[in-house]
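Standup notes
- DV: blocked on the single-chain target, sequence here:
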Amino acid sequence: MCGVFGIFNSKTPAEDTFYGLYSLQHRGQEAAGIVVAEYNKAKKKTLFKQHKGMGLVSEVFKDESLFDNLSGYAAIGHNRYSTTGSSKSSNNVQPFSLTYRSGSLAIAHNGNLTNSRALRRELTELGVIFQASSDTEIIPHLAARSREKEPLNQIYDALRQVQGAYSMVILANNQMIAARDPYGFRPLALGRKIDPLTGELSCIVASETCAFDIIQAEYVRDIEPGEILMIDHLAVANGNPTSIFLPPSKRKARCIFEYVYFARPDSFIFKHSVDKVRRNLGKNLARESTIEQQPGEKDITVVSVPDSSNTAALGFVRERNKMTKPARFEHGLIRNHYVGRTFIQPGIQSRDIKVRSKYNIVRGVLVDRPIILIDDSIVRGTTAKMLIKLIREADPKSIHLHISSPPITNPCFYGMDFPTKRQLLTHLFDTAENEQDEIEKIREYIGVDSLKYLSMQGLLNSVPSFEDETCSYCTACFSGDYPIQVSDATTDKEEND
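- DV (later): unblocked, structure below
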């Protein structure tokens, strides 16, 4: 998970990065940080300044006077949600920065490295001292040990040695470097902003394009899988950043769950609109649904679990009505927007407590009606079970839970916080005789009248296809098909917490 942002050649880099991180808050709520590059005339070199801390972006940077000390021409920022490394340690708050033989380096990383344990052991034996337990810290140490002289080539050397998922922005002296792993697991986009008064160009990199919108920047293109892109003052002047490419992977593996749940619907990721994909998910779910209005019943009411399921629910209702199966969309659940995403909130106990404070029911649109409840996924089942209990208080005629993705059956080792297999709801019932029996047991556990998951084919039919790619997405959490071997990957998140 996590969100990264970087901007080069800005008069207000810290402020721009703050707003970028604010737009990417959904990607991580545990901690936030900004590192700024400023040219020091006295020392005739670029120096880094930083501020970071635990909490939301608005909490970490609530003192406006902080920005007086964060002047410069470039900055990178990071929103954290821990998938490796303790969520409670301030040492793991990014961006990480260090001074080494070639100058200064700072890094913000989204993703998980699958060979981090082996690399960490190797570096520790060579005398490297680690300050954090996050896998990200391995990358600057590998770069610092490179025999190459230029930071771009040092980063290339480092990334040749790591495996797994990474979308990152790096400040290296007077350069900003963006990199994406050859599989393309996590999104990373390039943008630009032209100052209306001076005509000067700022180059921007962000996890999602919604971070461009808030500062009125323009989306240019995606950082390509395996691309390492370098931006400096010369690149800004001629409008032509330098790119080098890592050896290509055998396939691409864009995280399909970014479309299902994680990205904001107003973003473009992997070159396509999230909103459009989620509407497709809802349409295909409607085509697969078998729920019919019974004689004498009131109209079927479709309710989304806000906010990540709203768009899929709209697509579902539109397609259902097109199929002459009447349904109407209603706001049956009201979300308290001052409470964070329960999926992102660390710890199962705090997640239980927050569900009721996050959602409330609109009784009038639920009472005595057949309800189709649309949600994007079921991970642990805690939220779903409590939501159904809450909706039952409105005394609906029936509740049919429809999920706009297949069952999550496997943990993620590439940056999503899907827990160990034994913590997934599907694991509780994996002794079932077949998939239908398993879904029936989940239905009973959650307490709904029926449960429908979108099929894998329905999911694949909903997402964009890419030319000349036989395999474009990572579906490991649904299918168990892992693009990268995970023998060295963390198999128990609790070890890091």
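- Follow-up: Confidence is low (pLDDT under 50) at residues 488-497.
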